[in-house]
Amino acid sequence: MTVDELYGQANHRPWEGATGPLRVGPHTWFIGQTWIGVIVLETKEGLVIIDAGLSGQMWHIFESIRKLGYDPEHDIKLCLLSHCHMDHFSGIHILQNYSHPVVYMSEIEKEWPYREDLCNGIPAGLDYYMPFKPDRFFDYSRPLEFGGYSIECVLTPGHTPGTTSFFFEDTDEDTGRTYTIGMHGGLGLNTVTDQNFETAEEASAARAGFRQMLLDVRDRKVDISIANHPDNIHFFDRVTENKKDYRSFIDGTVWARQIDEKLAELDALERDSRFAKKGN
Ligand SMILES: [Zn+2]
Ligand SMILES: [Zn+2]
Q1: Domain 3-272: which topology?
Q2: Which of 64, 95, 140, 180 has the fewest Cβ atoms surrounding its Cβ within 10 A?
Q3: How confident is the model over 144-195, as pLDDT tens digits?
Q4: Contact criterion met (CB below 8 Å) for 95 and 78
Q5: How far away, in angstroms, is 70 Cα from ligand 2 center?
Q6: CA of residue 77 to ligand 2 center, whole Å
């Protein structure tokens, strides 16, 4: 399927490929569809949701949260936006009006919630844009402390200038084991393809920045990789019959592998670019 078809499926027919609550860590859940979803973290002060979901996806997110024994109207306390593209926030007005979480995003994209032209335009009919007002901006100099969790918010610019990635430790009380969980906020190379640029200089600066960001985060120790776009980590290969058993997601090699796949894609993109120097 094309990206537009995947978007349409997730937004208009969200029951297709709906995961329900899918446990990916001791207190960490993925809720979404095959193409896109949100992460929900259970803390003792309520739920943290990473990304806000698509407008058409919100009922599935709320229903899944109810299945976990929470009340989506009152229990979602924080929303952390990975970046300001519509496929990660088109449902935020529903979330803000119904659940009232404190919404965090990157200050670097502070104009974006009010600028549809910046939010990765979606073809008419697939979704609708509504501006929103975030409550706070990430402080990249210290972890965000909430409900017993310390969430490291790391600026990882490339896909967008304010793309933010999240790292936190999650402990399984039954086994006493603690895992480092990591989610990259945005790895799509669609924003550094040729059509985004007028000149070779612009293209090469943006691609060099993207590459540096990948290299900067590649060697992080992450026991469980999670994702807003599941494909980045070949997520569905790991899903087992028991949706409450997260153990198949424990794999310290996944983090670097997703980065290496993007480095290879970036190499290919640069090689095939119309800005590349051909021959000699
Ligand atoms: Zn994006
Ligand atoms: Zn996206």
Answers
A1: Metallo-beta-lactamase; Chain A (3.60.15)
A2: 140
A3: 999 999 999 999 999 999 999 999 999 999 999 999 999 999 999 999 999 9
A4: no
A5: 27
A6: 23
- Residue type present at position 174: D
Query: Which residues are bridge partners to 47 per DSSP?
Result: 42, 76
In angstroms, the CA 77 to CA 44 distance is: 11
Distance 183 CA to ligand 1 centre (A): 14
Cβ proximity of 166 and 80 under 8 Å = yes
- Ligand 1 centroid–CA 186 distance in Å is 6
Q: Which residue type, as a one-letter code, is found at position 228? A: N
Nearest ligand for residue 38 CA: 2
d(CA 153, CA 156): 9
Rounded to two decimals, the pTM is 0.97
Q: Distance between the two ends of the chain, CA-based, in angstroms?
A: 39
Say how many C-beta atoms besides its own lie within 10 A of residue 211's C-beta.
17
Cα(35)–Cα(42) distance, integer angstroms: 23
CA distance readout (Å), 232 to 6, 88, 216, 228, 262: 15, 15, 18, 9, 9
State the distance from the centre of ligand 1 to the C-alpha of 48, rounded, in angstroms. 20
**277 C-alpha to center of ligand 2: Å?**
31
Q: What stretches of 84-179 show up as alpha helix (H) in DSSP?
A: 92-98
Quote the CA–CA distance of 233 and 230 in Å, as a whole number. Answer: 6
Q: How many alpha carbons fall within 13 Å on the CB side of residue 86?
A: 24
For residue 278, how far is its CA from the centre of ligand 2 (angstroms)?
A: 32
Structure tokens at 131: 């501006």
- Could you tell me the distance, in angstroms and rounded to a whole number, from the CA of residue 42 to the centre of ligand 2? 23
Tens-place pLDDT, residues 78-127: 999 999 999 999 999 999 999 999 999 999 999 999 999 999 877 788 99
Q: How far apart are CA 246 and CA 46, in angstroms?
A: 21
